[in-house]
Amino acid sequence: MSEVSWELLEHQIAACQRCCLCRGATHKVPGQGDRSAPLMLIGEGPGYQEDQQGLAFVGPAGQLLTRMLAAIGLPRERVYICNTVKCRPPNNRTPEFAETQACLIHLRMQVQLVRPKVILLLGSTAARVAINPSLRITHERGIWVERKGVWMLPTYHPSALLHDPAKKREAWEDLQRLRDKLQELGLYPDLYGQEAAHGDV
Ligand code: SF4
To answer: What is the pTM of this model?
Structure first.
């Protein structure tokens, strides 16, 4: 097996035709952020803005995510953020199971390279890929799962919060769980700056 590297990952994603999503993509969206961050965020897939810019979470949901992270004192540039699929699904539909499985090779390499201690799973697609294919986000969000020393927390995708603001209260509770776990692991606030004074997401 070839040794993993960021260069290999970038090349692998740029050349990838493992599923049909590449046909409609303007840009592949590998992910970005701090490549040695102890906290990794995994979302679903690129939307319109992400597809146009080749960057993850830069549309309205991404802006909300930035505010959510700031609300617990996490600067967005200090986390690594990516999606389960690197190409935009048509009309922003949910990626199919086969598409997420085809793209898993890239996600696994990203996790191997970043070596996060904590992963926040944004939405059911990411949580199903990482934890359990039959996971129900409404039932299992906010519950920590530990695998091989990595702590994973499923929560709502920010776009779900934009569609249903009533979910924000639960999302805020999950953010507090995330902050508490980072604290427990000795990563907060030392590594992640100052504790925020409010919880307005
Ligand atoms: S979504 Fe992933 S697996 Fe499918 S073509 Fe794009 S990079 Fe390859």
So the answer is: 0.94
